[in-house]
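We store chain and fold; example below:
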Amino acid sequence: MQENSSAADRLGDVLPELRRFARALCGSQAAGDAYAAATLEAILADPDEFGATPDPKRTLFEIFGSIWRSSGRSIDGIGEEGSAREAVMQERLSALTPQAREAVMQERLSALTPQAREAVLLRLLEDFSFGDIARIMKISTVEAEELVDIGMTELESEQRSRVLIIEDEPLIALDLSNIVEGLGHDVISIARTRNEAVEAVKDLRPDLILADVRLADGSSGIDAVDDILGAAQDDIPVIFITAYPQRLLTGERREPAFVITKPFDERKLRVLIDQALFFRMLPAPSA
């Protein structure tokens, strides 16, 4: 009983980190949590392997990796999970002319380098060594290094986007603004409260939102984002920045796809910005 309890504790410690990674990799909570749940089921089917490992996080990610590869690295999740995103995209694609549809699909395909993005997230978001990445992805260490290099090159080629920052701490807001602009994007506004955030997007829709969870006036960045997304005509990716990431990685309710810990690491924020922008929804077709 003691041994099983210890294994459960070790799993509980690292499972939120897998959810964070899987959501960022898939671009949605539904798909990411579906993969995390499948990984958990695989461990429960053979708990001895996980219980004996000296490195529970790496072992957890190795099991995830085998499931991820067996699914063909589908960002839409397992089974019906995550299918809503693709359904919306297909509906909007069908409204375009054949020439426009082909151009959009070619752009998506040319931008898609799944293994490189996976490797960069493992390296920068989860701090795995190249050796660990090789074990998780079942590739050589040299290939792991090459994939991270490719992924970093993709980071530098991300197209210019408009970003809204919701943050009440002036110094943190300044840091975020400098990082965003350093990546070649435009900061359309820095909002300190829920009301300011809602007002900021009335005239100019952002392509991405960076939001703190707790704001100075007692309002919530989560509520501000809900207000904005409720009024928007399409989905806007959001990265939540919080000192308590585990509270947003429980898998028990609706939670964000992209979460980063405060104080944040610039490299991790950079890769999450790239990943979030990669999963931008297609704009609704003109009437």
About this structure: The longest strand covers residues 186-191. The chain has 13 helices and five strands. The beta strands are 162-166, 186-191, 208-212, 238-242, 258-261. The chain has a mean pLDDT of 81.
